[in-house]
Amino acid sequence: MYERKTTPNLNCGLDLIGEVLYGKWKIRLLWFIDQGYQRPSELQRKIPDASRRVLNVQLKELEDHELVTRKIYPVVPPKVEYSLTDFGKTLIPVIATLGNGAMNTKSGCGR
Hints:
Elements: H1 13-21, H2 26-34, H3 40-46, H4 52-64, E1 68-73, E2 79-84, H5 86-89, H6 92-103
Antiparallel strand pairs: 1-2
């Protein structure tokens, strides 16, 4: 497993954002969870370019940073749902602003 050689300065806002949101799919995961897509299979369908493993790793990192919570239901087969924490919800306006800015440029992602 990868181990960091240097620790980020989480007192700096830019370093904190980079550490928490670094990952190709994390911003989209947060957005889709806020939009009501809470099950891993639903998130996989919304982000088909990402492998299941990568999504699981990034969801775990978001959980470690206390942006999402994972609820496991005691049924067979196991049912898992993700939801935003209060801290995670504070990022949604920022993500929406980033998305609107990208849509207003010629190089926007168009999604």
